Amino acid sequence: MVNVQFDLEVLSDTPVSVGAGGSAGTLADKVIVRDSRGRPLIPGSQVKGRTRHAAEAIASTLGLGVPQSFGDETDTIIRRVFGSPQQRAPLHFASLIADVGKAQTVPQWLSQIRPSVALNRRRGTAEDERLLFQETALRGMRFTARPAIVGTLPDLGHVALLWAALRVVDRWGSAKSRGLGWATTRVQVTVAGQVQDDAVLAKALRDLVRGGGA
Question: Where does the chain cross the membrane (predicted)?
Fold first, then answer.
């Protein structure tokens, strides 16, 4: 087992909307998630979910075993990295917080309210009386966590799969079909206290594939 740390930086190319599920005190029907200082954030649960989805797609494409269902307890590289209902995940995923400097109060202009309409998918038209207002973090915001992911993994090959998955995640939050949440993700990987070069991780991923994900 090796100790690992992933530092993440997500630079939004379009506004990001990660909904908090309520709208108290605002004009929006759906507000964004914020921390105690009011800073917009991407929750750790979404970091884990998006990364796992990307890792499963990569593993499947490369011919590595993936779980057939959420409750599948077959020993696969995905289960070893992300855990399962019966096996605790070996990694902790932190929330990515918007970089707003050292201000104690966050300016309201860091978010905006965007109008949208609900669509009837069967008819392909807008629903009557369904004008909605959605809060988003502004385009160009930088979400970071250092560390964002920390824990232990079996070897460098497992680390490399997680690294590759993070590099291909290019959309965060909701309403992606409306153009929200497009972003560039930057990753720095540290294993046993040493920052890993991309070429080393790419080779480790190739070796993992040659070994069948074992």
Answer: none
Tokens 């005190």 locate to 25
Exposed / middle / buried, residue 61 (Cβ in 10 Å: 0-12, 13-18, 19+): exposed
- Residue whose tokens read 């992300």: 82
Residue 168: both structure tokens together: 């291909």
DSSP 95-117: PEEE--TT-SS--GGGEEEEEEE
Please, are residues 30 and 23 in contact by the beta-carbon 8 Å criterion? yes
pLDDT for 113 equals 79
* Helix pair angle (44-61, 156-168), 10° resolution: 110
Q: Are 8 and 112 in contact (CB under 8 A)?
A: no
- pTM given for the model: 0.85
Q: What letter would DSSP give residue 62?
A: T
pLDDT, tens digit (0-9, with 9 covering 90-100), for 9-53 = 999 999 888 875 555 555 666 788 888 888 899 999 999 999 999
CB 80 within 8 A of CB 154: yes
